[in-house]
Amino acid sequence: MIDEILATxxxxxxxxxxxxxxxxPIVDYLxxxxxxNILVALILWxxxxxxxxxxxxxxxxxxxxxxxxxxxxxTARIQWRVGPLEVARPIRGAIQALADGLRYFFQEAIVxxxxxxxxFVQLPILAFIPILLPIAFIPAGxxxxxxxxxxxxxxxxxxxxxxxTIIAIGWASNNxxxxxxxxxxxxMYVAYEIPFIIAVISMIYxxxxxxxxxxxxxxxxxxxxxxxxxxxxxxxITMLMATSRLPFEIPEADQEIAFGPFVEYSxxxxxxxxxxxxxxxxxxxxxFVILFLGGWNGFYFEPxxxxxxxxxxxIKTVVVISIIAIVRSMYARYRIDQTLRxxxxxxxxxxxxxxxxxxxxxxxL
Amino acid sequence: xxxxxxxxxxxxxxxxKKWGTKWSLWPVHLVTACxxxxxxxxxxxxxxxxxxxxxxxxxxxxxxxxIVEGAITRKMARVLRITxxxxxDPKFVIVMGACGLNGGIFWNGYxxxxxxxVVPVEFFIPGCPPxxxxxxRGIRQLQIKLDKGVAxxxxxFSEIALEKGKKPKVLPVSPKVVSNAPSIVVAVKKxxxxxxxxxxxxxxxxxxxxVITAKNRIALKVEVENLRSAAMKLKDLGFDHVKSxxxxxxxxxxxxIVEFLISSYSVxxxxxxxxxxxxxxxxxxxxxxxxxxxxxxxxxxxREMQDFFGVNFVGNPWKxxxxxxxxxxxxxxxKDFKLxxxxxxxx
Amino acid sequence: xKVEKISRSPIAELKRHVxxxxxxxxxxLIPDRVTVEYPRERRIYPDNLRGFIVLDRSKCISCFRCxxxxxxxxxxxxxxxxxxxxxxxTKCIFCHFCVDSCPTGALASSxxxxxxxxxxxxxxxxxxxxxxxxxxxxxxxQSVEYFVTKKDWxxxxxxxxxDISVLRIIPRIxxxxxxxxxxxxxxxxxxxxxxxxxxxxxxERCEITLGGEVIGKGCILKVTEKCVGCGLCVRQCPMQxxxxxxxx
Amino acid sequence: xEEIKIEVPVEPPKELETLFLPIPKDYVEDTYRKDDFLILVxxxxxxxxxxxxxxxxxxxxxxxxxxxxxxxxRSMEKLAENRLYIQNIPxxxxxxxxxxxxxxxxxxxxxxxxxxxxxxERAKFLRTILAELCRIGTHLYDAAILAxxxxxxxxxxxxxxxxxLICEALARMTGAxxxxxxxxxxxxxxxxxxxxxxxxxxxxxxxxxRLKSFERIFIKNPTTIARLRDVGVLSKEEAxxxxxxxxxxxxxxxxxxxxxxxxYEAYEEVTWDIVTADEGDGYARFLVRVNExxxxxxxxxxxxxxxxxxxxxxxQICDDVKGNFFDKFGxxxxxxxxxxxxTEAARGTLLFTIVSDGESNVPYRVRIVTPGWLYxxxxxxxxxxxxxxxxxxxxxxxxxxxxxxxx
Lengths: 365, 347, 248, 407
Hints:
Chain C is of the alpha+beta class. Helix content of chain C is 18%, strand content 29%.
């Protein structure tokens, strides 16, 4: 009975498995061992690989460790200083984020008296659901979780869920600053979501489909950023706003409202909410790379086989995020009313222009 | 649950936890006094505390280290305690600066509290202010403590043996000479070469008794009843703001001297002139009319004098303590409030 | 001088954006780094930096000047074979009024300034601990100095370690001794005699004369060879008739 | 249809009672009845110094701000009455340690004016250099705090990097990075070597070069301009009425600088400009100080190039400070009377009043009115009607430093 189920599963996994010539001998060896083989097959099963390994969760964790360190290091470099170093001098302090993470993990997590206790604890964990859902739809070459021609629309829809959890976090905290932060988050949400969605729609018009495969294929010659530079710009700016990075770090604004919705969080729970914005940034950048920078188009090495596409996508994403990280040391924070004014006037106007370009180009192509 | 907590705190994960805490000592943003300037230097590009894993961060909940930067006043002591209690375990406190250790130069002030009596302190850093190196040394010592489990001073003295002697019969007197019955004269006439002042002085004689006390300084005495009208007349002359409100306590004559130092920004000739509009009130019932509606700039200065001397400025909207804490002694600047005296001989 | 007006035109705005981005990328590529990596290297401060105070016991004349000038009352004299100052670092503000007040140069400043203590009691440094420089925890492998030219400011790193030195400046004050300016005003209260830590003042009985005529018997104070010129008696005298005089 | 009145019970939050609000209970209740919101900013808040601001907002607009100062009130005036005149020198510079020379100068000048001490020329020039170094240091400090308040961390780091040079210059000249206690009645504590002066001269150019980077990345940053311009405007009339001082007064268009109005030390012998602006907004306040930094650099250079030879302390006091400090300064007695000096500290007019009874060697009364305390009222007024997010921007543009205000 169990054997049969295992065999069926094995068949399912093997029929849709990542082909990586480089590690093929190792895989072949592991396949001979019972029980391990089903695990290996599962890992190499394309949907699973896309969601859990690459570009999904595993590299997401790696990316988190990297980006926190890199951002601090880059900021420090621009600011005439060194940044994290002594924790591991030979590798320039690259495991600083790990130390901070461990410290948060082992610190007491306080739930204060005035908080709505269940929500206060649940929401940081619930917030991961809208983060994880889009990953299932983001393809990387052959590796894809759920293949659908409406993937881009779905990703955008799931991304829109994240601010709701942040607002809920602020509500559950029951603190003055958390309240102000939640209100700001809600205002910002409307402000960036409209130009963002219009910019994405313009690209969908341009490619004629919401299917990432079509989008990437159409960019094989010219990347989307050149086809529709205005949509590119609008997407970039709304991405900064959506992930509350400077100069739009308004809902969290630590000097004004003390991290806004996250003011009362401590210990592990704060660790969870702190990485929320980074994760959102990761997903949005994946979408950004697919829409504007040619997705997984790029190098192809024979020995890597199917791994080429996810690797290429991941590298592009990390490079883009690393470049975006410089903004942190460049700008001060805008005020909420200024941001709203910019986004409801200039950004929406630009996104309309982008939509026009998208429609026209889509019709020509 | 308790077993789990125990397991997390010690157990096999202990060394990992220790390592994480050691390299991630984040001081909370609680600036308590002026040593904050050197703290900023230690975390700015000159020294960069982030190198050794200490990142200055905003809110108590997300940090694990308090660096008490100097003086803790009675008002601030409460805040320090609240901040410390808001912080999740494990948490540490480093005190920098002489004021935070034992009061430093303010050791006998009426408004200071020792932080070591408010929260448990790991390390003390002397200096006023300590150099950034000293602060980083404190953080390093804390890291070493987390590593080894025992706190160590950063320096060891090489002691030499000396025998104790016997105290002499008479100890040297204090160098301070304080008059027992001081006579306070605010307006001491001085002959200066200041033509405009003499003219101005003549004009001011219509308001009260005007005396030139130095170049650009005129003392103008009025009676208590005439204070407001005098201020009005000064305002008409072009004087538009108050630079200082001062009260001098003269207990042996049973009076307070209340001074308003009035000057002008809008009239160019009057800019350097400082008119000391003063009056005397009884020490038993210290009451004087406020000038805060004529000169809004006098408002906070009057509130402060209300705190310090208990002089009631009738007409000032503020009642109650403004600058002092609820538990500060009453009217500390009156002469009958005495401070602890110095001692020059130790044991 | 009026400050310049900032243009509000979008083009100027754009130019400022470009400036910011340029500067940030320039720093990211070639950073003007100025960080002193403290535990690993020590910054060389000038010799006159006011740090830990060192006492040369052989020079100390127990004059109490350091204790009495201290604005924070951090110095207290303790009695051993003589009165010696001890610095309470829980109060010391490193103003070094004491060092400047010391007439013999017994107190001197070192440029040791990075200290951390675990308890307040250990910070009350006694005279017995002040004689030599303490040994400190040192993790430095090199030293750094600020090097400034008209063009720029750089950090100069040197292999040799910074030595923690004591800057000893001997004041140009000749040895002094107390003497009585107006013996006839002496009250005979013996305050000077009792306060003297060196037992240098003695009272001698003598005849009081007025106009060459002996009118009675009294005593007169005499400063002996033991006097080191600390001036305690001068400050103690209620009649202010004592003074310090330089001796050849 | 009939209108039905709904009485919604409004209860102010309970935690406000335990936080020792200095405002009356009615005020809190009134706020909640009118659908306003009370926000307590500070003292443990990343965007506040050592003080608490009780902010009443309606929506995002600030209705009123009530300051709750005194978190750093260290009883300086009382202590000064209990110390020797000379022992007060380290004490009076503690309100603003980054501005120590100016604070020392004010107090020492009050003693000098009382005792008619003539200060030698060289000492005057040295004092001017120290005062201007401290002024640059303070302006940079305030710029850094302003930058971090509006979220620009690079703008925080650069001034503090430049400040290291100022600290090094002060350490070389006086022996301490911050609290120099170097200015004493009659002159300075020690002569400064030619080598050190050359170093300071070179450092002024190095500072200027680094300031260019700072200008590009922060001063002229579009986000900085957006945050500060037209924010917290104080008109000329308001600034005069509320008695604002120093660069903040000059930013509102009043040409008042104690260094010009009542010159002291070497300010008459060097050429420099008084910096003013008309706008009176946060950005003008910031720019005035930025321009003052370059004026100060010019003053330092002129002082060093035209530094006269001679004594560093007046012959009325002593020949050499070293070793004589207690004997010559320990027993100063001022003649009876009241002596007031005005000094232009970095943040504005600093007033010292010493009252002496003519017999004691401790002052009878020392009144210290610091610039921070004087412009607090104007600061509070300028917040009205602005947005909550502007609180920090205005705070930073005033460079409010609570230890200085509270003394």
